[in-house]
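Morning run. Coffee first, then this:
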Amino acid sequence: MYYFICFMVAFFACIIGKICGMGGGVIIKPVLDSTGIMDVAAINFLSGVTVVGMTCWSVGKSMVRKQSSIDLSVSTPLAIGAAIGGLVGKQLFSMVASSFADKNTAGSVQAALLLIATLATLIYTLNRSRFSSHSLTNKPLCAVVGLFLGMLGTFLGIGGGPFNMAVMYFFFSMSAKTAAQNSLYVILISQSVGLISSSVTSGIPGIPAPLMAGMVLFGIIGSEAGGMINRRLDERQVNVLFELSMLLVMGISAYNIYSFLS
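And here it is:
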């Protein structure tokens, strides 16, 4: 039964992740946390595997078909910075998790920080017309931005999520659909490096291979469904869905805080 739950979570999360450029991890991680079917470390890894599979398919397909609007000149240094930041974020989370006797406490810390960071992102998104956006092209600065983005996304176990989109809006003045493609590219690079590092240093958690394969498969199917929906939506509708998805993440995070601490 829990296989079915995981597969459906991957499917619907990757539909939203494809449309909004969030990758899906920002939904997979807190939803699976709320079920309590695996420990936090296993969920982090499973979410990462699903997101890498989905983004690899999505980004690769768009490039092969020459339908990509990814700006490699800024997104590649951003992705490299995010990958390095992800390694730092993983170490920070390990330090925090090891300081608590109960693993659930570490989960509650992640959930609380995810709630706060998502709320801040939502507030910015709703009011971004009031802020001046930038068109950053300096590669070292892009890498620094990516460094902090990767640290945050990996520490929270979500791979980037809505924070990537906010960065694309603020630092690079991208439209919603262009930001979504560039965000998925950054997530692909940073999450891939993080998974390889985690596998080498800590090993692969005891997750059944059919479960991982099924999550990736349903993530890809969700990505395809999200792509078809995305083509029917205009920029305003994509923005509305992005904002609603952040409200969903905040609601699940609030529930997880209560669940972990009760």
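The CA atoms of residues 43 and 113 lie 17 Å apart. Good start to the day.
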